Prior knowledge:
Distance between the termini: 100 Å
Helix content: 10-25%
Protein name: Lipoprotein LpqJ
Strand order of the largest sheet: 1-10-11-12-13-14
Structural class: mainly beta
Low-confidence stretches: 7-24, 28-43, 51-58
Number of strands: 14
Largest sheet: 6 strands, mixed
Organism: Mycobacterium yunnanensis
Mean pLDDT: 79
Radius of gyration: 36 Å
Order of helices and strands: HEEEEEEEEEEEEEE
Signal peptide: 1-18
Keywords: Signal
Region (Disordered): 22-70
Amino acid sequence: MKAPVMVVTALAMGALLAGCQSTVPGSPEASSQNPTEPTFPTSRPTRSSPTPTTTTTSTPTVAAPAPAEALEPQNGYVFITTKSGQTRCQISTAEVDCEAPFTNSPPVDGTPANGVRVTSDGKLTWVLGNLGDIPVVPIDYRTYSAQGWTIVAAEDGTRFTNDSTTHGMFVAIGGVDAF
């Protein structure tokens, strides 16, 4: 009886070795589809005795906003131009005046206003005028400080907030909002 078991074992070993030595004719080609690997549950080894676990609690870290870049005044004013180049402003401690090609400005003396002014107490006034050849500093989409105002420049407009009163305005080509 031992002989048939040995014969079966020898045949099985021979078939196993023959399967490892076979080749498949052809050339491999990459698939244009995005195949995903199958997932199979994996078992975890068990332990005969429980191991004490330590639980640690971590507080999520929130990045602090970048500090505002201070813009230096010239003769009591800071002059800026937005990244788009369409809005120019002069900033003093008392007010912010901006000039732009507004699309929805009210008429002043029969002409659409091209300027707006907000005082530190939040009073908004539309004006006609030209800031002239002011020495502007181009600003990027970030936060600045100038003459007691915080300036937050973004793609959709620029927000000027007086640091003492928290009044100010949001300026965009499509409109202005005072607060």
